[in-house]
Amino acid sequence: MPFYVKMGEVPQKRHTTFFKPNGELYREQLMGTKGFSGIQSILYHHNPPTQVTEVKKIATIDMQYVEREELRHQHFLSFDAPQGGDPIVGRRYLLGNDDVVMGVCSPTEGMDYYYRNSEGDEVVFVHKGEGELQTIFGTITYRPGDYLVIPIGTTYRIVPSTEDTRFLVIESQNEIVPPKRYRNEHGQLLEHSPFCERDIRLPERLETHVEEGSFEVRVKQNHTLYSYTFDFHPFDVVGWDGYLFPYALSIHDFEPITGRVHQPPPVHQTFAGQNFVICSFVPRLYDYHPEAIPAPYYHSNVESDEVLYYVDGNFMSRKGVVEGSITLHPMGIPHGPHPGKIEASIGKKETKELAVMLDTFRPLKATRQALALEDTAYMYSWLPVKK
Q: What are the Homogentisate 1,2-dioxygenase N-terminal domain coordinates in residue numbering (predicted)?
């Protein structure tokens, strides 16, 4: 995010001596993106972050994509995915390409290790449950509806405090940022943005750990998972400052943009990644032209795949979808409201729908795990009902 934050203790000048009470030096670490030309923060550790006692390869991550035999709309019932594992191991990847992957997670176990994605940024959407995102930058308390935005290279663990926990996980191969059209030349969010800096929730507290022992950090890089063992706690940071940090944004703080006639999907955009966008569909008033049709018009995704994750409410243009449904409408063929939904929307004043959308500008592939959850009749759900 394009604003400066400081937490804990930092020296007056960077790259200068900064001593512990016992006279030893704190260890300075620059954490940045795009070499030295992207956003960055400087962290001050009790121990050198390079002080590793053991490293080993755990596994190669195989997404198990299935080549598309037919160009068709697909519907996946994500709540039927197996529960289990922790907030990392329990991720069930369903769709992806070389830019981004999407999965769901319903963990039943805690993390006895720490995790770092060194391939790209992550967005973890909290569908159900409460808990803490504990990171090297500090702790963020999360609740249903939160987007947890975790920058590349952030060491963290997710600690649920409720049993019924469900996440939608989007992992990028690059950075995930607010849309450029909502920011001025300095990076500040503009007045027409559907959210502003006040809605961004930063780490609430920085807890510095000085414990010694054996601590595991699992690192994902180049589709491979590695294990690093340290003889000190990875959250040994006494202070940090800069522009790179994790944050939370609630979907309930997204202010919808409406108009006299139906507005196109880009008005729902919340984040942008390389070759994809993330959008939020939230409760809102319908169009107020006296002859407006609130339901969306039929449209062809000529250059994007559209994925919708249904969170709550009654989605006015669809039938047969339920909480946790994921629909994929691929590029190249048209889609739109189900039969009767256009007529039923006329005269309606508002919608209570809640959903997260992922639009990609390169085709997505489904995994074997996704196909096991597929409602295969979905492609034909636009046919008129026989009387």
A: 107-248
CATH 3.10.450.50 fits 49-72+80-250, yes or no: no
Q: What residues form the annotated binding site for homogentisate? A: 335
8 Ramachandran zone, left/alpha/beta (phi>0; psi -120 to 50): left
Average pLDDT over every residue of 341-370:
94
- What is the distance between the alpha carbons of residues 196 and 186, in angstroms, rounded to a whole number? 14
Question: In which band, very low, low, confident or very high, does the pLDDT at 35 lie, cut at 50, 70 and 90?
Answer: confident
Q: Which of 364, 366, 370, 356 is nearest to 308 (CA)?
A: 356
Q: Are 364 and 73 within 8 A, CB to CB?
A: no
Whether 167 and 124 have beta carbons less than 8 Å apart is answered as yes
The rounded distance, in Å, linking the Cα atoms of 242 and 230 is 26
pLDDT digit string (tens) for 285-315? 999 999 999 999 999 877 899 999 999 987 7
262 part of the active site: yes
Cα–Cα distance for residue pair 345/318, rounded to 1 Å: 11
Give CA–CA dist 144/127, Å, rounded.
Answer: 5
- Sketch the domain layout of the chain as residue ranges: 49-72+80-250, 251-376
Biggest distance spanned by C-alpha atoms of the chain: 85
Q: 251-376 adopts what CATH topology?
A: Jelly Rolls (2.60.120)
pLDDT in tens, 88-145: 999 999 999 999 999 999 999 999 999 999 999 999 999 999 999 999 999 999 999 9
Tell me which H or E stretch contains 345.
helix 341-345
Which pLDDT belongs to residue 385? Answer: 76
Query: Across residues 317-346, what is the average pLDDT?
Result: 90
Residues 363, 368, 373, 377, CA torsion sign? positive
CA separation, residue 162 to residues 104, 137, 249 (Å): 17, 23, 20
Over the stretch 144-161, which tens digit does the pLDDT of each residue have?
Answer: 999 999 999 999 999 999
Query: Which residues carry a binding-site annotation for Fe cation?
Result: 299, 305, 335
Indicate whether 318 pLDDT > 90: no
Catalytic residue among 262, 268, 329, 338: 262
* Residues flagged as binding site: 299, 305, 335
Q: E strands along 143-223, which residues?
A: 146-150, 155-160, 166-172, 212-221
Let me know if the fold of 49-72+80-250 is the same as that of 251-376.
yes
